[in-house]
Every structure is written in C-alpha cells, then in structure tokens.
Amino acid sequence: MRATAWLATVLVGVCASQARAQDFGPAGQTASTPDPSLAPPYIGPELSGSVLAVVSSSADYDEKQYLDSAYGLGLWYAPVARFAVGARYEYMGLGGGESSTGTDYVDANYSAHTGWLTGRAYPFLGDAYSIFVGAGVGMVLMRQSAVGIRTTDITDPAGDPFKCGGTSSPNVGFRASTGLDLAIGERLAFVTSADATMLRGSSDIENDCVPGVGSPISVGVGIGFAYHFAL
After folding, report:
1. 177: which strand partners?
2. Radius of gyration of the chain (CA)
C-alpha cells in the first residue's frame, strides 16, 4: 500500500506540472510549442507505472485490499504515425485480504507476472500531443502468498505460524486502453493512460497455501516515459 500511495502522489504531481508547463512559460507567458516529435518509422523503450483497483475477483476475505500498483517496461515500433506495435513485461499487484477465525489468521497477497503483445492506434495526432487507443493479449503467471497462524493440532489451540507461496500454471490476459502521448522533445514523450485488464486464472490452492484469485478484472491509471530511436 505504501508503494501504491507513493505512485498515486507521483501521478497527480507529474500530471499537474505538465499542465502548468503547457500553459505558462518562465515569466508567466504562454509556453512555446514543443519541438516536433520524431517522424516514423522509429523504435524505442517505454517505462511506466500505474495505480490499480481490482474490481472483480474470487478472493473471499473478511477484509479485502482492492488497491495495488503495477510497473513495466516495453519496446514499441511505429512504422507509421497512426499505428504502433509493442511487446511489454509488466508486474501487477492484485490486492489481497485478511481473515481470522478463532486463533487462526491469514494475510494473503496476489500478484502476476505478465508479458504482452499490444497495439496502439492514434485517432488524433497533434503537434504537441496525440491521443491513442490500444488493445493487447498476454501471457500470465499468477502468484499467491500468505503468512498467518494455523491450527494443525487440536491439542495446541494456539496454532502454528506459517508462510507459504505458490505460482499457478501459465494462462492468458486481455487488455483495452486509452491515453495521451505528450511530446516533451524530439525523441522523448510523456505518456498517460487508463486501462481495463482481465487475467484468466484459477481459484485452486497452490502448494498448500491459499486459494487463487480466480480471473481478476482491474482498472488502472498510469504514467510513463518513452524514448524514440529513428530507423
């Protein structure tokens, strides 16, 4: 949750500073138009982070954690101005929960390692910024981990502490997104996005730990930076 709160603060602060930079120059005058962005074809990395809200999952706990965060690194190729394709790795936090029954207690957390093949189309292209819509399909490895106390012997009502983790079999994920690509130089861009993601998974107990999170659906908002190399 600390990482999520920090990332949310960065999201608000960076977006606000970008808006001020567009409106005013150093002496309160209108800022000049940024240098035109690099013309396609180009290729380049994009580093980003986002805040997520898990809106649907099969996790069943007394107290649920819905907010989490994600970060990733991708490589994009733009053959023309209105279309780009990319490959991306992303680590996603999927929330968790806490439950207690008598002396038994569990604190579970869920996450996923994902690899995506994605595409973006740009219905609006401007000198300073562009708007895109995107879609992607990916491979997903979900992980569940937990700590707590379990009663393993009825003669010992205090229970025994435990720590466990398990990773499910590979599965697939689907994503739709939209966002803003803001040129802050010929080769550098600031990217904001909003997305909805569905990851197929299992509710099975892995490695004698806790039940899986099923097929969670999440929504998120994120920021990132992209750099372009001319081809």
Report:
1. 134, 195
2. 21
> Among residues 220, 226, 223, 186, which one has the least CA distance to residue 18?
223
In single-letter form, the type of residue at position 38 comes to L
- Coil, strand, or helix at residue 185? coil
Q: Residue 99: which residues within 8 A CB-CB, separation 6 or more?
A: 61, 62, 63, 105, 106
Structure token digits, residue 221: 């908002």
Q: Looking at the DSSP assignment, which residues form a beta bridge with residue 125?
A: 130
Which pTM does this prediction carry? 0.81
Closest CA relative to residue 179, chosen from 48, 40, 44, 70: 48
Please give the structure tokens belonging to residue 92.
């996603």
In whole angstroms, give the CA distance from residue 197 to residue 216.
Answer: 8
List pLDDT tens digits, range 126-165: 888 999 999 999 999 999 999 999 876 666 666 789 999 9
Phi-psi region of 202 (alpha: psi -120 to 50; beta: other; left: phi over 0): beta
Token couple for 98: 């806490």
Write down the residue that tokens 């802050």 correspond to: 184
Ordered alpha helix ranges (H), 53-142: none
Kindly list the distances between the CA atom of residue 114 and the CA atoms of 27, 37, 44, 174, in Å, as whole numbers in the listed order. Answer: 46, 30, 20, 11
